[in-house]
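Entry 12.
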Amino acid sequence: MKKNNHKPTGSSASTLTDGTIVSWHWGPGAVEAVDWSAWDSFLDTVTCKSAFLESRMLRSLLMASDRSIAAVQWMRECDLIGLACIEDTMAESVNLESHVQSERSWFALINKFLHSRNGRFQFRVRVVGTVLGSGEHGQCWSPAVSAAEARLLLTETVFQAHCLDGEQVPSVVMLKDQPIRNNARRKVQHPGWIPLEFDPEMLFHINPEWNDFGDYIHGLKTKPRTKIKRIMTLSSDFAIRTLSAGELTLRCDDLIALYQQVYERSGFRLGSLHAEELLTSKAQWGDDFVVTVYELEGELKGFQCAYIGREETEAFFVGFDPELRKTHAIYQRMLVEFICLGIERKSKRINMGRTALEIKSSVGALPRRLMCEVRFRNPLFQAIVGRYTQGYNPVALSLRQPWKADAHAFEAHSEI
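Predicted 3D structure (C-alpha cells):
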C-alpha cells in the first residue's frame, strides 16, 4: 500500500472569537486522545444518526495511513457543542460535463481550459465530511447552537492549522452534503459560501413490516418485479458469501484491484479507497462491517461492503469485472443484496450513494438532492468561482418508478 509521508499527526487547540475552544486530533494518535465515550454520548442527544460520525467510524478512518483525517470538537464552558470529521484530500475531475450542464457558452470554454492538460483537473481540498460517503455526515451540533452560529464557528475554524507536521492547509474547503428540500432552487444559504449541486443521493426506504426479500418485491409493480426476478436468474451462477476478518486480510488487495476497475470509470473523484481502510473498518465494526464477495467458477469477480449504523445501512463501495454487468447482472445483484442486508438488519433505510442513478431507481431507491458548499481562502478565487458556478445545473435525470402507489417508500421519503 502506498504511504503518505506527509500525513498530519497529533493534536492542536485554539480559542475562537466568541471563546469557544476548537480542538483538532489528527491521525492514529487521535484514537487515544479523543474521549470517544463523550463523542458517542453527544451523538445520542442530537438528531444526527450518521454512521460516518460514530466513534467506531472515526477510529477506523484515523488509523488509515493513506488519509489525512481529523476528529474536530468544539467546546464551550467544558461542554461539547459540536463535532466534525474533516479530511484533506485530492479532488480530480475527469469529465465534468457528464455531471453538470449549462446553457452559457463560456462554461464549456472554461471547462475545456481547466481540463486541457491530459483531460484532468486536480486540486487539493479540505472536506468537512466523509470523502468517500454521500449525505449529512460532516458535522453535528448541539440543539442549543443555531444553524447560523454553527456556520460562523465552522467558518472561523476550517482554515486553521496552517502547518501541522509540515502539511499546508488546502486553499479551498468543501462542506458535504446538505439536503435541498421541496424542490427548491440551489441558492446561497450562508454568507461567504458558494453552493454547488451535483447528482442526488439515492435512498432506499425499508418498510418495518418487511421480513424478507419476498416482502420487498411484493411492493413493486409487475414489470419491475419481473426485472428483479431476471436479475436473480442472470446472477444465479455466482457463489455469494460474506468474508470473515481473516479472509478479508488475505483478500483485501484483490478487492481493491476490483474496486479500481470501477473507480477509474468515474468522472469526478474525491479521494480513493485503500486496502487498509477495509481492515481497520473490520477491526472497529466487526459484524457491522459486512464484506460480501462474488465468485464464479472459483474465481473472485466482485465484492461489496456495507456499514450497519444505528438506523441506516450505508452501501459503501463495490468492485467488479465490468464485463459481467450485462451478462450476469452483477451490479444489479449487488443492489438487491444491499436491500436484503438492510431488511435482515432492520435498518430504516439504505444509503446507496450518488452513482448509477437510473439502475438504483429501478430497484426502488429514490433521489434526495444534495448541495455541497465551498469557500476559498483567496477572495479573488472566491469571486471567480462564485460567478463560474452560477451557470450550471446537474444533468437532467431519467429515473424509474417501480413502486406501487401505496408503497411505504413514498410515505417515508420526505424529499418528494
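Annotation: Confidence is low (pLDDT under 50) at residues 1-5. The radius of gyration is 21 Å.
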